[in-house]
Design a protein that fits this description.
335 residues, alpha+beta, seven-stranded mixed beta sheet, four-stranded mixed beta sheet, 10 helices, 34% helix, binds adenosine-5'-diphosphate, binds magnesium ion
C-alpha cells in the first residue's frame, strides 16, 4: 500500500493503534503536542538518542524491515544498559522516502514493538516527515536510575579488572557474510553470525545487575569495536589498560568461519563494531561476587585484561607481545 494514500496523520494514527501505551508512568502518550510521563521518586532521568541513516548505518537491501525496527531500538537499549539504567520510554522520528511502502513501516513497528515489549518500554511519541531518497530513523530512549548507582565511563582505576559480556566479532563477521554471500542459504554457523549482526541482544539486565550491586566502576557498550571503545573508558578515566588477546571470548561459529587471513580471529574481534556487549572495569575484590552473578547470564562473562596507570598507555598483548595499535582502529564515520 502507498504511504501517500494514508498521509502523515493516517500513518501516526496507525502507529498509535499498533503500539498501545502500557506503561503506568505515562499520563499522555502519542496524540498531543508533547508526551507527559513520570519517574519513580528519587530517580534521575537517563536519556540517549541515536540516528540511523540509510546507506550509512544500514542497507535496506540487506536488512528486512522487522529486523531493522528491532535493531533500531536495541542499539539505544544498549546505551541505557551501559549506564546501568532502566529503560522506560521511547520516541521515534522517521524521514521516509517515497520508495518505502506501508508494509515496510508496519513491519518496522512490529519489530520495534517486539523489542520494546521485551524490555517494558513504551512508545510515547515521535515525528514523521518525507525524505528525498534515503530513510532516516532517529530513536530517543529515556530511562531512569539512581544517580549513585549509575555507571559512567570515567570511574576506572588502575588495578581494576576488565570484563566483557558475550562474545566479540560475531556481528562484524555476520555483516561480512551478509554482504559476500547475499542470496545464498547460510550454514548454521553463518546463520548464527547473521543473527548476531541483525538481531543483537542488548545486555539490559546485566547492566542493571552490575549497577544495582555496585560492581562496575566504569562501563561502556561496544558499538565501535573493543579497542576503540576501551580508549573511551581510558580517556574519560585518565588511565591505561592491557588486554590479553588469548582471553577475548570468541564464539564457536566465529572460530569456524573467521577467515584465516588476513589477520587472526582476535583482530576481527578487537576491531569489530556493533557487538553491543558491555565492557566494564571492576575492582579485583569483586571478582568472586561477579563470577557468582554471571552464572545466571546466558551471554557469559570474560575477564580480558586490567586497568593500568595512564603512563602505561593502552596495550593489546598477543602471547605477551604488544600489538601495533594501527591494526586495531575501529569504525569512525568521518575518517
Ligand atoms: P507536531 O506538529 O506538534 O510535531 P505531530 O503531528 O508531528 O505534532 O505529531 C502528533 C503526535 O504524533 C505527537 O504526539 C507525536 O509525538 C506523535 N508522532 C508523530 N510521529 C510519530 C512517530 N513516527 N512515532 C510515534 N509517534 C509519532
Ligand atoms: Mg511533528
Amino acid at each position: 500500500m502507498d504511504l501517500r494514500k494514508i498521509g502523515e496523520f493516517g500513518l501516526i494514527a496507525r502507529i498509535r493503534n499498533r503500539m498501545p501505551v502500557r506503561s503506568p508512568g505515562v499520563f499522555k502518550g502519542i496524540g498531543d503536542d508533547a508526551a507527559v510521563s513520570s519517574l519513580a521518586p528519587g530517580m534521575d532521568l537517563v536519556s540517549t538518542v541515536d540516528l540511523l541513516v540509510e546507506d550509512v548505518h544500514f542497507d535496506r537491501s540487506l536488512i528486512p524491515a522487522y529486523q531493522l525496527g528491532r535493531k533500531s531500538l536495541a542499539v539505544n537499549l544498549s546505551d541505557i544498559a551501559a549506564m546501568g539504567a532502566n529503560p522506560l520510554f521511547t520516541l521515534v522520528s522517521l524521514a521516509i522516502p517515497s520508495g518505502v511502502s506501508l508494509e515496510f513501516i508496519d513491519d518496522f513497528f512490529s519489530g520495534f514493538g517486539a523489542m520494546a515489549n521485551a524490555h517494558g518500554v513504551a512508545l510515547i511519541g515521535g515525528d514523521t516527515s518525507a525524505s528525498p531518497d534515503r530513510l532516516f530513523i532517529s530513536i530517543t530512549l529515556l530511562g531512569e536510575g539512581k544517580r549513585e548507582a549509575l555507571v559512567y565511563r570515567h570511574g576506572a582505576q588502575p588495578g581494576d579488572d576488565l570484563y566483557v559480556t558475550g562474545t566479540l566479532g560475531d556481528s562484524l563477521l555476520g555483516l561480512h557474510l551478509a554482504r559476500s554471500q547475499k542470496g545464498k542459504t547460510p550454514s548454521p554457523e553463518g546463520q548464527y553470525l547473521l543473527e548476531r549482526h541483525f538481531n543483537p541482544s542488548p545486555r539490559v539486565q546485566e547492566g542493571r545487575t552490575l549497577a544495582r550491586n555496585n560492581l562496575a566502576r566504569a562501563m561502556i557498550d561496544l558499538s565501535d569495536g573493543l579497542f576503540s571503545d576501551l580508549l573511551h573508558i581510558c580517556e574519560e578515566s585518565r588511565v591505561g589498560a592491557v588486554i590479553w588477546t588469548e582471553r577475548i571470548p570468541l564464539s564457536a561459529p566465529f572460530r569456524s568461519l573467521v577467515p584465516a587471513s588476513p589477520g587472526k580471529g582476535w583482530q576481527w574481534a578487537l576491531k569489530g563494531g556493533e557487538d553491543y556487549e558491555l565492557l566494564f572495569s571492576a575492582p579485583p575484590e569483586k571478582a568472586s561476587e561477579l563470577s557468582v552473578l554471571a552464572r545466571d547470564w546466558p551471554c557469559g562473562l570474560s575477564r580480558i585484561g586490567k586497568i593500568e596507570p595512564s603512563s602505561r598507555g593502552v596495550v593489546i598483548r598477543d602471547e605477551g607481545e604488544p600489538v601495533d595499535p594501527a591494526l586495531l582502529k575501529g569504525y569512525d564515520h568521518f575518517t
